[in-house]
Fold these 4 entries.
Entry 1:
Amino acid sequence: MGLKKYLIEEIRDLTQEEARVFGSIATNYEVDQLDLLFYCPTSKETAADRDKLMRLVMPETLQQDILHHYHTSLQGGHQGVGRTYDRIRDHFHWRGLYKSVQRYVGECVDCGTVKGRPRIQGESPGNLQATYPFQIIAMDHIPSLPRSFKGNTELLVFVDLFTGSVITKASASRSAQTIAETYEECVFLRFGASEVIRHDREPGFMSDFFKSFNKILGQRQRATMAYRPQANGSAERMVQTTTRALKMYVEDLDQRDWDEYAERLTFAINTARDRIRGETPFYMIHGWDPRSTLEAVIPVGSTRKHDRDPRRWRYQMQKYYQQVREQVNQRLREAIADRADTHNDLARPHPVESGSRVWLYLDRVCEGYAKKLHGPFRVAEKIGEHAIAGSTYSIFPVVHVSKIKLVQEFPDRPVTRLNGSEGDRVDFDEALLPEDSWIQDRDPDEYEEEQISDMRTGKRTRYGRIYR
């Protein structure tokens, strides 16, 4: 080490530039009798640094071992940059210590896959809007329910995005064939085929059998982006509403009677006035209001005033129904736009670009102490400002940017020295300079230093003879 040679006066092998650099920092270093180099804080340092009298200077060959001990090992505990740096600087020192700790902790794979959630908000991709009943159907299911007395363990949920009407069906499995048969029974035979079916990436929904079934009916499938339940928000919210309602009516100790209430509770949901649409889902589908059992046994008139003439009553009902549909379309457009604007107000530009290395955050598929960040993966394509397509993640290649976290990268400084000949240099201003412009001006008492022949020694401390 050149600094150690400078401190013990072995300076013959040093160049003039090296001697100048070492001379500017030599006051902070000392060499003991065992030929070990120590860093000694000067009076300009803080009081806490002065209490730590001497810190051993570590060579480059041992720096990674020190970082591994104080961060990666069980004694280090994968602490953050600040704590790791404080523990190392209490005993050891090298130039650029904080940057070394920052880089080592930032590139730690275990810390990258366990600590922190993605902070990228990302813009809203918008939402689908239906213009008439059962044009777009959202699907979801409540899995792994207690086995009922009828042998059912799954509850399939269908939601009409225009009216908000919900249809539920209990089943014993969630295979693609069961889903197709349930859709045919609950939706197709009652309301006809839909244009679009919105669902998440459940294997039963994404199977070839269900795709062939939709192709026969002329329906398009619109799967959501991976690991983003907000894209199927209507169905996800209805799952929560249905689950809460079932909890209030299930009486069996083993919860095996849930399927007796699941399908019957949809009447209460479909006959309640929707806050966004302004009407009940039942009326927006049929054009008339149903009567409950209480309304059927007492002389309560219809909630809609109508004429006794059937033709005139039908005309007025259809006219009012068209007005309701136009009003619902307008309200849905405004609600979707307001939610997107509210979300985008919090979104900020993100640095994710094509070629970036990212971690994928999977919070819903990991349990216990499993790592929730997986990867890293390379971004193959940037889709707008809200999604990316991965190049090596082949299962669900398109994900929202809120589910990714950039990998911290610390590029190395160039270490190759560029040696160019004088003939390769081109200085356009050289001809305009005087011939002696490169000669530095000196005072009369200043001379150029050719060689360092001797230097003064330092002090004696309790650690032995110190050369300075």
Entry 2:
Amino acid sequence: MICGHHLSKFPLVAERLARLNFFLLSARQPTHHAKSFLTKPASSSYTWECNVRINEFGHRGSVEEAKKLFDEMPHILKDADSYASMINAHRLPKACRLFNDMVDRNAFSWTSLISGYFAIGQVEEGRLLFEQMPDSLKNVVSWTTFVLGYARNGLINEGAKPNEITFVEILSACSRAGLVEKELFDSIHAFGLQPKAKHYSCRVGILGRAGQLDKAMSVVKKMPPSKRDGTFLGALLAACKAHGGHKIANHISKLLIELEPTDSGVYVLLANVYAAHEKWDEFAQVRKMMRERKLKKVASFSQVEVKGKNHVFFVGDRSHPQVEGIHEMLRLMHDHLLRP
């Protein structure tokens, strides 16, 4: 199905489909499905599908099935992720041997073994391995594993310390992925750092998108007023529209109006929240407030900086000198995305 629909061009999407397909089929006949899979032709998609299945076997505790599939893979097609998947599947001693046998270690394999050490309380070994990990391979996932490993083992004041920028990167990734990780945010204090506006913004954004509006509002109330800004408060107000939080929207709008009393966008967004939940009296009050303060709705626009020059685009605007080329590129992108 995956190859037939050209999804092999999009490995992340295909991998997610492979996971779902494997889970559904292996729930009925895990061994048969693994055997039938091995009849597929050797290719790059074969490799990552094998890796997905090894991971699934490991998570289900079927280590022998994982090992069997790994052993039957042609050696030339095994990559760093194949070994990392086996590291995840095995208990620590065997995982260490596999890791030491690897020629090409990627971020996944390093992080898998680090996580294994922290999981059984071997914090010093996990710390040493993290310090040995090449800086070029350290990413959001590896730093998150390290930070939470220390926090969960009660040793947050020891070892290598992430800085404020590291926490911004980690929290931003959690925000984009929709991961609600309070423990990670709380560990900022434990590492002797003070949360900045960006840290709070990520935390509020995570909770808002998850529909946990009360918790998001609680974070806002605990924030120092100097760290509040219109960007993330506006995002939380938009979340109120999506998740039915018109009461919380009242509190947020008051804070926003204090920060940006002449920003018509705040009033428009609040009015839209009320309209979405058919609170027409409140909607009318907001519109009246806009008229009294002589505020007008500003046309939506986007902008991009290219070679030091700002290019601004309004909805329906065709005044840009390169408008024909821009629209042609958009058409090509549209056709490419729709192509089967």
Entry 3:
Amino acid sequence: MSSTQTLPPILRNRINKDLKPFKSSPPPGCSLLPTENVLVYKATISGPPNTPFEGGLFHLNIQMGMDYPFQPPKVRFETKVFHPNVSEKGLICLDTLKPKPVGSWSPAVSLFSLLTTLRVLLSNPSWDDPLSEDVFESWKDGCWEAKAVEWTKAYAMDKENDVPQEENVKEGKKRQAEEEGDAKAEPLAKKSKNEKEKEHEKESVSV
């Protein structure tokens, strides 16, 4: 499924509405990129400052169903993160991602607000309902923060592959400027060539 035009109107309009803010003013520290499947998106969240995740770039997979936004999307971390509310497989324990009455999902929740909430979750883990027993035990032993920093450095700081959102925006603008410059340069080049031909003709006549 490669085009939103193939989707039911309600779903298509909602997805387009969700994507609009990301094109002009995305949530701080977050980005959202499309895939070949219009119901699947790749997101990134930068680790919030003053947390064990600071400096890391965490990749997530977001998959919406045909019943979106009446049912929550399936979201999981693709980057390993040592967090009490994230399982080893990247599954996330968050009320916002659970339908009512178990959770608090509402069609009013947008992808913008969802990514914002997930970034807040990195800053404020919930220890009342941990998803990872190992992480919870490390917290009780007083070594969770050090372990989380270790994982962030090991799995979320691949500088060769992970480019912060701001750099992606700059690179995109740079490519656009280069393309516009090439488009303008082409007619100038043709003009310059014509001028040279005219000058050559004048020289031939004068000789």
Entry 4:
Amino acid sequence: AGVSSAPLVLSGGKEDLGALAMLEDSVKKLKSPKASPGPALSKAQ
């Protein structure tokens, strides 16, 4: 998913970067259940 989203980020703006960051954070949560959701939520804001 990350690789296919790269072209969108290169040709997109800050909004795409923010959306991609949120997707990456959600993926990291799924892959790392031990990670606390606090830091991810603060980054989303």
